[in-house]
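Hi V.,

Quick status before I head out on leave. The structure for the redesign project is tokenized and pasted below; the design run finished overnight.
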């Protein structure tokens, strides 16, 4: 393919997006108030993406609700989840007591009401590669997952554009990252890729074409400026990626 983008890279993007379609990723919620939080997260979506009171070790993310200072039994549960490597969020009611086995940034304070908006933002941050698959099943997560996906891709592309150490061409790296972002944004909204090869090419084509178009425009802009440098390239790459993501969300 032209512009340094290989067909293998495009196929890899499609495979990644397609794998998420069959994902059975789930969030395990436990502790006092778990049913209430699960109902809020599942609003308008697939309740099967959340399990309440079950074994959290098979989940992609565990959320534990804790009242006040954790007991010895509560601490044992948190230790078990942490040692298993399952990402863990804690919603703590009543005080700022240190919660063991959990990163401070992953402890969310709750007052009279559950901080659902904070939990949603934390899920988008902690769920990692499974966040788009979860958002496809849980509409309450979609806005937060989209913001994080666009933000992290934009920052990564800015770093690539500013890097003086990259030995490979930057254009295909930036374009593939943007194409991946667009496909995952679609997946997070429940888009399903067709199985027929020709229809699949037509479905994936706009994402790649859009990224290529933005990339060519950004490259022309940088070359036409009377000044340059890594900061300029980073700013253009960042702005172009965010613009592309925002446009996808409006479609």
């Amino acid at each position: 393919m032209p512009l340094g983008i290989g067909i293998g890279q495009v196929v890899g993007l499609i495979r990644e997006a397609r794998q998420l379609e069959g994902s059975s990723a789930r969030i395990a919620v436990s502790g006092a108030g778990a049913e209430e939080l699960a109902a809020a997260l599942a609003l308008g979506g697939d309740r099967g993406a959340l399990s309440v009171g079950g074994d959290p070790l098979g989940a992609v993310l565990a959320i534990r609700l804790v009242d006040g200072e954790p007991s010895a039994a509560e601490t044992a549960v948190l230790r078990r989840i942490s040692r298993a490597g399952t990402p863990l969020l804690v919603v703590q009611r009543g005080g700022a007591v240190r919660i063991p086995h959990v990163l401070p940034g992953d402890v969310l304070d709750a007052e009279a009401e559950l901080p659902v908006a904070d939990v949603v933002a934390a899920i988008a941050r902690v769920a990692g590669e499974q966040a788009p698959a979860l958002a496809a099943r849980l509409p309450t997560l979609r806005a937060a997952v989209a913001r994080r996906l666009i933000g992290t891709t934009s920052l990564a592309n800015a770093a690539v554009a500013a890097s003086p150490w990259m030995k490979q061409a930057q254009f295909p790296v930036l374009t593939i990252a943007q194409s991946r972002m667009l496909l995952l944004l679609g997946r997070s909204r429940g888009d399903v890729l067709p199985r027929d090869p020709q229809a699949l090419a037509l479905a994936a084509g706009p994402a790649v074409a859009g990224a290529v178009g933005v990339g060519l425009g950004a490259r022309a802009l940088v070359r036409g400026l009377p000044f340059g440098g890594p900061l300029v390239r980073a700013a253009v790459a960042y702005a172009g990626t965010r613009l592309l993501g925002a446009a996808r969300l409006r479609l």
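Above is the designed sequence. The chain has two domains: 2-21+136-250, 27-126.

G. will cover questions while I'm gone.

Best,
W.
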